[in-house]
Every structure is written in structure tokens, then in C-alpha cells.
Design a protein that fits this description.
The chain is α/β, with parallel strands linked by helices. The protein is built from six helices and 17 strands. The two termini are 17 Å apart.
Length: 305
């Protein structure tokens, strides 16, 4: 089967692209490796998406998925290992199958960056998490640490403060970098403490091989052991672009270089959402990218004879 377009990633950009493509009567399918929604699934509350004054990221992702499903968009749960440029067509390779298409829309987004310190890998899912809304309820009436000071870290720390007895925010800078409103909300929480100018040296393991705490060092060289039942890391993101590493469309950081039409330098390959080089990574910019990508796919397909 030759598709008109195949979309890689079922986050806001990918699902919006799928909706526009299906409504344009294109032969389209969307691939997702994990669960639909992308990074918004990990967001406790979203208050700046037009038309939805406040809702959880999981709720918004669910609404988007239901919209795509209502139109009959094919959702394939599989991982794209490689995209091959065959000229007029493109081949998508998964662990078990191959797919051929006239165009591709990359909407793979990003994944959380890790610290790379001792015991981090050992404690994944045993005390270390990247999703407060997913795992926060496990730490009700317990002590947790949040690593980071940007929007994600601050917003998730606020959410965790409603569950945990104490939240300790560890930030390597001397201040938070999140939006002022998010900072104000967090600062007003009585059960939140801060460690500024501090870096994580290692995670500590208890006798049950679970999280025991965090060893940190401040910018004066002083070390402190923080006892915590759980740790949530929010230290940045890594673009998911391994499947296009041989196409020469990414920058030195792995983000896709696309123009205002979401076109990459490879004819027939488009890119949308957080995976792109861009100024702002928000739900509203991701959905806009998805819509723009499909409009330009349609123009390209008019010449595809």
C-alpha cells in the first residue's frame, strides 16, 4: 500500500496533522511508540490552551485522540527505526514491517533528559520518575525531590505539594527560570523547600533497592544528603530523531531544521512540533505546526504525478 502521508508521533502536532490529513481525504496513518499525547501526558495542568481554561495534560491528550479516532485515522503502535529517501517515495522501517509513502511528517517530539549520575538507571521506576501526574499519587504523605527550575519542574512541584508532606526543589542555578505566575504559586506552598545552586552527585539506594535520597553539592562545595522517597527529574528534553540521523536534516543538538512551511531540505519530508528548531515549544505551537505541515503536503501532492 502506498500512503499519501505517514505521520510519526501522536502528540499534539501529530494528531492535528492526522486530523487535517484525514479531512482532506488523504490516505494517512499515524505511528506511536508509547502512548498518544506526547509530553502533555506528563503535565498536571494546562491553563494556556485556547478554549480550555484549565485541564490536565492527560485530559487534553484524550480529547485529541478521540477526535482523531472519530475521523477513522489509523493509529499504528510501532517504532520507526529508519526513514529511507527513495526519491519520489519514502520507506519507513519498523522492527517488523516496512511502509511506503509519498510524504512523511515527523512529529516525534522529545523525551526527558537524564542526569547520568550513579544509581540513576538502577532507580528508574524504583523512585525516579519523569511524570508527576502518572506517579505522584504513589508518594502521598511522603517526601519527594524535584530536580530542575523551569516550567515543567515548577508546575509539577506545585502538583506534588498537594500530595506529599514535603517537596524539595533542587535547582543548579541561583533562581527558578519558570514563568512568574508558576513561580509565585510554588513559592506560596508551605511544604516546599528549595536548594539553589546545587547539583546532584548521586542517588542513594536503601536496603530494599529503592530510592533512599539524593546526595547534592552546592556551589561552595558543601555536600548534603536529602532523604526522599521519590525523585522527579525535569532537566530538559532530547529530540527523538534517531530515525532521520542519516538524512542530514537535524542540527548539532538533534532538532529537525524545518522552514516556515514545515519543509525539511529533503523533498517530501516535513516536520512539526517540539522536534523542530523553534523559539517556543507549547501545545498551541505544536498544533499549528501540524496544520501547516499538512497544508504544504497537500500542495506538494498536487505535483506528485
Amino acid at each position: 500500500m502506498l500512503y499519501d502521508t505517514l505521520i510519526i508521533g501522536a502528540g499534539p502536532a501529530g494528531m492535528t496533522a492526522a486530523i487535517y490529513a484525514k479531512r482532506a481525504n488523504l490516505k494517512v496513518a499515524m505511528f506511536e511508540k508509547y502512548i498518544p499525547g506526547g509530553q502533555i501526558v506528563n503535565t498536571a495542568e494546562i491553563e494556556n490552551y485556547t478554549g480550555h481554561p484549565k485541564m490536565s495534560g492527560y485530559e487534553l491528550a484524550t480529547h485529541m485522540l478521540k477526535h482523531t479516532e472519530s475521523l477513522g485515522v489509523d493509529l499504528i503502535y510501532d517504532e520507526i527505526l529508519k526513514i529511507e529517501d527513495l526519491g519520489r517515495t519514502k520507506k519507513l522501517i519498523t522492527p517488523t514491517n516496512t511502509y511506503e509513502t509519498k510524504t512523511v511528517i515527523i512529529a516525534t517530539g522529545t523525551v526527558p533528559r537524564k542526569l547520568g549520575v550513579p544509581n540513576e538507571e538502577t532507580l528508574l521506576s524504583k523512585g525516579i520518575s519523569f511524570c508527576a501526574i502518572c506517579d505522584g499519587p504513589m508518594y502521598k504523605d511522603k517526601v519527594v525531590a524535584v530536580i530542575g527550575g523551569g516550567n515543567s519542574a515548577v508546575e509539577e512541584a506545585s502538583y506534588l505539594s498537594t500530595l506529599a508532606t514535603k517537596v524539595i526543589v533542587i535547582q543548579n542555578l541561583d533562581k527558578l527560570t519558570a514563568d512568574k505566575k508558576a513561580q509565585d504559586i510554588l513559592m506560596a506552598k508551605p511544604n516546599v523547600e528549595f536548594r539553589f545552586g546545587a547539583s546532584v552527585l548521586e542517588f542513594l539506594i536503601n536496603d530494599n533497592h529503592m530510592m533512599a535520597g539524593v546526595l547534592i553539592k552546592d556551589n561552595k562545595g558543601n555536600e548534603e544528603t536529602i532523604t526522599a522517597d521519590g525523585v522527579f527529574e525535569y532537566i530538559g528534553l532530547i529530540p527523538v530523531t534517531n530515525m532521520v540521523k542519516d538524512l542530514g536534516i537535524t542540527n548539532n543538538y538533534g532538532y529537525v531544521m524545518a522552514n516556515e512551511f514545515m519543509e525539511t531540505k529533503v523533498l517530501g519530508i516535513y516536520s512539526a512540533g517540539d522536534v523542530n528548531v523553534k523559539q517556543i515549544r507549547q501545545v498551541v505551537t505544536a498544533t499549528a505546526d501540524g496544520a501547516i505541515a499538512v497544508q504544504n503536503v497537500l500542495k506538494y501532492l498536487e505535483t506528485w504525478k
